[in-house]
Amino acid sequence: MDHPTAVLYLEHDGKVLLVDSEGNGPQKPVMNSTGTTKFRFPTEVEVASMGIEWAAKNTFNILGYQVTKAHPEIEWPQEWAWKDECISDDAVHPIARESIYRSIHRLVSKVMVLNPQGEVLMGKIERGHFVGHWTLPGGYMDHDEHPAIGCVRETLEEMGIEIKLSDDAPIITQRIFTNEGISFVSFTYQANWNGNDSEIKLKQNEISQFEWLSPSEAISRAVSGFDVAALRHL
Predict the structure, then answer these.
(1) What is the mean pLDDT of the chain?
(2) ∠ CA 194-228-193 to the nearest 5 degrees?
(3) What three-state secondary structure class fits 40?
């Protein structure tokens, strides 16, 4: 199936617009089906021919094609495809499936652990996105995990200490870091810890060292925009 070099990814509350190779739509996929690829995202011209106005949000490069994520200025489109049903249908072009996959938020849970002096616990990372840099304890949430549980689990895994979160609401931030369009959402909590440093047991091959830093020093060392945003609240 030939694919246009630039398409529109129109999404409205979980529904996306698919067309066939001739630009006719809306089309609906069938979950878990196999066969010939025949559905794709529409071009701007095809959307205009349907009389649909839209507002662009972001433009990304997906496998060499330009995909513009946009919101259609219409009522909820009942006859469009559910985005979750597009991923497992071979009839849907890989560009559309990859775009939908990348549009799903990646969830991260972190925590600012404070000692009685008001210093923040940070670790130097040996793997992942920030090798050789300093970050707050935390990481990706498990599929069925609440963020308040995730950061406590991650702190125990990375630092070897058990913490209890404060009653403060988490600091929630969202960011797309690259032109691939993957969106990260971070929940950063706060906890007070009055233990002894000898209790801290770093996770081998993941955290090389730890330090207690003043909030200003922690901000200057942090490379994650999520960490910086949370630390500024201190």
Answers:
(1) 92
(2) 5
(3) strand
Listing DSSP states for 131-183 in one string gives: TTSEE-SEEEPPTT--HHHHHHHHHHHHH-----B-SSPPEEEEEE-STT--E
Please, are residues 217 and 120 in contact by the beta-carbon 8 Å criterion? no
Residues 222 and 119 in one domain: yes
Residues forming beta bridges with residue 162, ordered by sequence position:
none
At 197 the pLDDT is 95
Kindly state whether residues 199 and 120 are assigned to the same domain.
yes
Whole-angstrom Cα distance, residue 141 to residue 151? Answer: 8
Least confident of 32-36, 157-161, 217-221: 32-36
Judged against a pLDDT cut of 70, whether residue 32 lies above it is answered with: no
CA–CA gap between residue 130 and residue 222 (Å, rounded): 10
Task: Say yes or no: 110 and 160 in one domain.
Answer: yes
The whole model's pTM is what? 0.80
Residues 149 and 116 in one domain: yes
Q: What is the mean pLDDT of residues 122-148?
A: 89
Asked if the structure places residue 1 within a domain, the reply is no
Per-residue model confidence (pLDDT) at position 41: 97
Are 128 and 227 part of one and the same domain? yes
